[in-house]
Amino acid sequence: MNPEQLRSHQWYGTDGLRSFSHRARTRQLGYLPEEHLGKPVIAILNTWSDINPCHVHLRDRAQAVKRGVWQAGGFPLEFPVSTLSETFQKPTPMLYRNMLAMETEELLRSYPVDGAVLMGGCDKSTPALLMGAATVDLPTVFVPAGPMLPGHWRGEVLGSGTDMWKYWDDKRAGLIGDCEMAELESGLARSPGHCMTMGTASTLTAAAEALGVTMPGASSIPAVDSGHDRMAAASGMRIVDLVRQDLKLSRILTPEAYEDAVTTVLGLGGSTNAVIHLIAMAGRSGVTLTLDDFDRIARTVPVLANLRPGGRHLMEDFHFAGGLPGFLSRITDLLHLDRPTVAHPTMREQLDGALVHDDDVIRPRDNPLAREGGVAVLRGNLCPDGAVIKHIAAEPHLLKHTGPAVVFDDYRTMQRTINDPDLGITRDHVLVLRGAGPKGGPGMPEYGMLPIPDHLLKQGVRDMVRISDARMSGTSYGACVLHIAPESYVGGPLALVRTGDPITLDVQARTLHLDVPEAELARRRAEWTPPPPRYGRGYGALYSEQITQADTGCDFAFLARKGEVPDPYAG
Ligand code: FES
Ligand code: MG
Predict the structure, then answer these.
(1) Which residues line ligand 1 (CB under 6 A)?
(2) Pocket of ligand 1, candidates 55, 162, 194: which has the most ligand atoms within 8 Å of its Cβ, to mutate?
(3) pLDDT of residue 173
(4) pTM, rounded to two decimals
(5) Angle between the 255-267 and 200-211 helix axes, to the nearest 10 degrees?
(6) Which of 163, 173, 204, 253 ranks highest by number of CB atoms within 10 Å?
(7) Can you give the pLDDT at residue 373?
(8) Burial class of residue 397 (count of CB atoms within 10 Å of its CB; 0-12, 13-18, 19+)
(9) Phi, psi dihedrals of residue 559, rounded to the nearest 5°
């Protein structure tokens, strides 16, 4: 591609007043014309923030990307974009995933950008950045933030999230005290980087690598490893080449790439959140991906990654065991190998020479952690549009279970009352939380791993059947049926359940059933009144109007729909 064909040429290279002004203002930025004119302009979208420990290293890491871009003859410009911190942002960063997707899309379109490097990794950042970039369809490389180092405490290795839930339950059961908890506070998360279990962050960055939008092996490099700097620099070099070749993101994000991402997520025993995000991302790529695709593929893919919360190890172990290339090398028969990636003409070449160095971390095919992928899609009169369960992270005896419902109308009521002995909750009850879906939550917070009541914890109960229209953290575990669609807030059947109703879960049969006669349900439906709107104005009101249900990916309807957006006139 010659310089006149660059998109940015319209801003810098024409004879008009506008180009004169853009060149003058770039001199104002301190650049000589020969430093940038005619070079591919690379936007580095950085989700760094002081409040986001998963991305706090990205402020420096952007310098490595810039180094790579300069080396390859490009002109890097960093754009700070919204940070989505899983830990700090309330009610949930899921409320803001589509906002970052919009910001990504609009920044890339409205500025003189020829190619993009996207930096992020904490849960929703990866899908948000890729949804926006897929819509604009410039050459794009994703730089995953990288997992934090493993936690340590009194000789135990700790996984962020997963062990937080575990030890919090131990404290509630009276097994450990304040002193231990204070030590755990320092031990759980000991370096910058995203959660180092196979939680949502690691699942989505692995999916990005499987899609082919990262450098090979990028997704498992620990955030503070020098290799992460080198990967960032390599990504900077690579994006300049991609612009010169005009290799747009749509050439990478094909139906085959999305199938392979689903295969990867399932074979890793990854987070249930990936179901929603991959469906939304695929939608932005014009690719139809459904819940049924996940269930179909799950039946063909064994879980080979022995990583918490489903298994034993952490992301650093996975990295040294061969990382994603090693993992993918074990399932090549299940992948589409003749599709391009940002780094290689084909995925086949990308995986050439990939090896596994530890058979306990990345299991061989004849010794899987589970014979089928970790996520099952359920249907039934409680979830006509589907629900999901990560059955490998549940106690097996609960996977076929009938029990009476205990219904909580919202999260606060549940928190306030779940330990009330008068509710008479036994280990056989089915805990039901509603009002926690995309509109009701709002934002579908990660409330889906409802707490086990204190008195049952003390009896040693560690898992129960729990069902909700919420999501669950990728680091959580248990027999939790999630993403029930349609949600109760819009009048889905979950809204009709009453305490005492029998509910039957049968994962093998892929069903979730409310054992109440249809005539009685019809009577309850006629009595049901929609709850009042949650927001009177602002982003929340826009969100409530536009958000779609979990089974279609929770994109905004006006963003997901087809239609042209003109490129701005810059001359
Ligand atoms: Fe950011 Fe877990 S809190 S990835
Ligand atoms: Mg999470």
Answers:
(1) 54, 86-87, 122-123, 161, 194-195, 199, 201
(2) 194
(3) 85
(4) 0.97
(5) 140
(6) 204
(7) 85
(8) exposed
(9) -90, -30
